[in-house]
From TrEMBL:
Organism field: Nocardia goodfellowii
GO molecular function: DNA binding
Keyword Transcription regulation tagged: yes
Family to which this protein belongs: Belongs to the LysR transcriptional regulatory family.
Domain HTH lysR-type: residue ranges: 2-59
Origin: domain of life: Bacteria
Protein known as: DNA-binding transcriptional LysR family regulator
Length: 298
């Protein structure tokens, strides 16, 4: 019989690439991860890892086993969800991950509703970059989270998570003067931290317009981004949730590009009463958002 905990370590290795990264994510020591993977090789009677010095790679047999492991974990999640559905009331910890601009606009109203209806839920919110959400859901450090993708930065499907659409937003060019995107090739730009989706989105939208942006400032909070734009420090691309209260005299021009937000949770957990409650509360919060800005900009 295969050990599920060892299968989880192998799955994490397929995503995180190094034993040290797996150990850090799951609170093991690297030697313990290596020992458990060696035990999994003995259980399967197959070579799962190819070792070259300190580096390891998954063999074809290991990749096949990871595919089966995803099905196993989803089945276990469905069983857990069905058992939870039989309990009298929702209680216990529930960890929600969200990107910063969604916390005050979507997540906070949802938390109020959830706390009122399910007072025994122990709700926890963490601000996370959407790029890290799949890893957090697989590692079980989050139960539900918001993920996003932009036009020009599509999200790769992940067999470990299920998603459902929540919100679609316009992307705005934020500046202190009225000029189209194509005329901004020589401007200073403000973008997110390298490696974030916002940073990648800025580069790809500009490249689609025919130039590579000259990024002077990095900021991940859209309030900070807009303050820098208003101070004449550059221009930026900001999604709709990030421009709910822009500084005076800021010029916002709607672009033919969108950000799409989805609710994500571990595959198989869609029927969990807690997950169902969070999904419902998030959709209700989106339905109460103020009317959208004019597509012509402001």
């Amino acid at each position: 019989m295969l050990d599920v905990r060892r299968l989880r370590l192998l799955r994490e290795l397929s995503h995180r690439k190094t034993i040290a990264a797996v150990a850090e994510a799951l609170s093991y020591t690297p030697s313990a991860v290596s020992q458990q993977l060696a035990a999994l090789e003995r259980e399967t009677g197959a070579v799962l890892l190819e070792r070259t010095g300190r580096r390891v790679q998954l063999t074809p047999a290991a990749r096949t086993l990871v595919e089966h492991a995803e099905t196993i974990f989803a089945a276990l999640a469905r069983a857990e969800a069905e058992l939870a559905a039989g309990r009298a009331e929702l209680a216990g910890p529930l960890r929600i991950g969200a990107f910063p601009s969604a916390v005050p606009t979507i997540v906070s109203p949802a938390l109020v509703a959830l706390s009122r209806e399910y007072p025994k839920l122990e709700l926890t919110v963490a601000e996370v970059d959407p790029a890290t959400v799949p890893q957090a859901l697989r590692a079980e450090t989050l139960d539900v989270a918001l993920v996003q993708e932009y036009d020009y930065v599509p999200a790769a499907p992940d067999p470990a998570i299920d998603t459902e659409p929540l919100l679609e937003e316009t992307i705005y060019l934020a500046a202190d003067t009225v000029e189209p995107l194509a005329a901004r090739r020589d401007a200073a730009w403000i973008a997110g931290t390298p490696g974030t989706l916002c940073h990648t989105m800025t580069i790809r939208i500009c490249e689609a317009a025919g130039f590579h942006p000259r990024i002077r400032h990095h900021a991940d909070d859209f309030g900070t981004v807009l303050a820098l734009v208003a101070a004449g420090q550059g221009v930026a691309l900001v999604p709709e949730l990030g421009v709910t209260a822009p500084p005076a005299d800021l010029v916002l021009t709607a672009l033919p590009a969108r950000r799409r937000t989805s609710v994500a949770y571990p595959r198989g957990m869609g029927g969990s009463p807690a997950v169902v409650a969070v999904r419902s509360a998030l959709h209700a919060a989106v339905a109460e958002l103020p009317s959208r800005r004019s597509e012509a900009g402001s």
